[in-house]
Give the backbone structure.
Amino acid sequence: MHTDNELIIKEIVGAIRRLVRAVYLDSSKMSRGFGLTGPQSGILHNIAIYGPLSSADLSRKLYVTPSNITGIIDRLEKKGLVERIRKEEDRRIVLITLTQKGKDLSRSLPDPIEKRLISGLVDLEPIQVRELSKAMKLILNLIDAREIEDSPLRFSHPANSVVNGDDHF
């Protein structure tokens, strides 16, 4: 490794660690303040934004495996925050919807860290956003994360936390 690069490389790795830590702390704050894990709050946010969703839709939006999403929904259902409702026109389809308690809680939840990031990025110059995008793609390639899928963001609504497939970070 070139000596000139060592300090910069340490700064990059340190910044990534701080980013991961910030996501973890955001999730911990959610858990302490509201009794929810990151994925649980992500489900509440998504249903509040998009309306009733199937567990498959939630699974895709939150990067959670279908088997894990079932457990997360079970726990939210036990807390009285969501309920499963069969679609009238096709009884095979079960939609997850918010209860009144879930609606009330979802309105009081703080903005996810992703929404704050998006808010900051939209204030940057287009060239800065392109440079950051290029750098992020390079970092993802370096750690061989090319195969991890992304889900679309909607800029007019709160964004969701990225989840690692568990009901916690």
